[in-house]
């Protein structure tokens, strides 16, 4: 869900997706970059990203927005969700390698932190933006100066969430942000849509579309957040069915599922994860937990 699936929602239908648009979404450059980055992470297996492991992107990708880079680096955010120091380091290094400046890397790091907290189930919606702002101030104190626009967008988001503001108020606020603070607005909108209905992906994505600011990018960001929050079971059954048809020839779903299995394997320390069968998933347990010893005869 996090890499472009199911973004083609009709704005007037909270329960349907448009398979044709979803298929087009799979071909977006940031989706391809995310898959490429995930493949290199799975191949590395050592929790280390070397410059030669970064995807080779076309020149047209360089200079893209923070939202697009947040999607392209999503495998890194997921892979290092349990180590924020490494996550922050590798996100910044990857954004820099792809031509992004420190302000863009700060916005991408904010999204990576949000993904990490969602996965670790450390999310209280009414406190989440304050938590993100605290993380920024403590971990990246220099962001207070260089990323004032990002912090301003987050403060606006915090106010909208605290006041329980409706869609029209959010549209007015974010359209103004899109004109004055374009670097951070996509991520701010995605966080808003997610926090409004974290358990209901259809409502969150429709809200992202109706806000009218880069709906494909914002929709993918929202999908990543809710996908991390509810897992695959949170995606409506009719969406699964609708997504099968346009991808039958491209094998895109199989590629994503296989890559997900390899990433989980590499993260959990499985050697030679590339040897996994297509539908085989490793058995993973939490690290540093005492478990019953298995005796192999």
Any overview of this molecule?
The protein is mainly alpha-helical and 297 residues long. It is built from 15 helices and no strands. It is globular, with a radius of gyration of 19 Å. The protein starts with 18 loop residues before the first helix and ends in a 29-residue tail after the last helix.
Strand content bin: under 5%
CATH architecture tag: Orthogonal Bundle
Distance from first to last alpha carbon: 42 Å
The class by helix and strand makeup works out as mainly alpha
Q: Please, how many domains?
A: 1
Low-confidence spans = 1-27, 290-297
Largest sheet: none
Radius of gyration using CA atoms only: 19 Å
Order of helices and strands: HHHHHHHHHHHHHHH
Helix count, per DSSP?
Answer: 15
Assign an overall shape: globular
**CATH homologous superfamily name?**
ADP-ribosylation/Crystallin J1
What is the CATH topology classification name? ADP-ribosylglycohydrolase fold
Provide the helix percentage: 55-70%
Number of strands: 0
Mean pLDDT: 75
What is the name of the CATH class? Mainly Alpha
Sum up the structure in keywords.
297 residues; ADP-ribosylglycohydrolase fold; globular; disordered N terminus; disordered C terminus
């Amino acid at each position: 869900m996090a890499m472009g699936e199911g973004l083609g929602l009709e704005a007037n239908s909270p329960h349907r997706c448009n398979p044709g648009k979803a298929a087009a979404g799979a071909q977006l450059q940031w989706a391809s970059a995310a898959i490429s980055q995930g493949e290199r992470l799975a191949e590395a297996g050592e929790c280390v990203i070397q410059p030669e492991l970064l995807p080779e992107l076309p020149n047209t990708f360089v200079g893209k927005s923070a939202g697009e880079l947040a999607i392209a680096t999503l495998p890194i955010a997921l892979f290092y969700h349990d180590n924020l120091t490494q996550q922050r380091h590798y996100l910044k290094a990857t954004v820099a390698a792809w031509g992004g400046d420190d302000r863009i890397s700060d916005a991408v790091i904010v999204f990576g932190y949000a993904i990490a907290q969602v996965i670790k189930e450390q999310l209280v919606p009414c406190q989440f933006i304050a938590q993100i702002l605290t993380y920024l101030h403590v971990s990246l104190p220099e962001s207070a100066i260089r990323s004032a626009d990002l912090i301003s967008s987050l403060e606006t988001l915090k106010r909208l969430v605290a006041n329980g503001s409706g869609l029209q108020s959010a549209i007015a606020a974010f359209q103004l942000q899109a004109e004055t603070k374009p670097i951070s607005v996509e991520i701010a909108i995605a966080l808003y849509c997610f926090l409004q209905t974290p358990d209901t992906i259809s409502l969150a994505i429709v809200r992202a579309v109706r806000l009218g600011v880069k709906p494909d990018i914002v929709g993918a960001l929202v999908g990543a957040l809710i996908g991390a929050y509810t897992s695959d079971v949170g995606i409506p059954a009719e969406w699964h069915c609708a997504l099968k048809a346009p991808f039958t020839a491209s094998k895109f779903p199989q590629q994503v599922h296989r890559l997900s299995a390899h990433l989980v394997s590499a993260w959990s320390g499985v050697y030679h994860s590339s040897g996994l069968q297509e539908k085989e998933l490793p058995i993973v347990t939490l690290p540093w937990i005492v478990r019953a010893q298995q005796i192999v005869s």
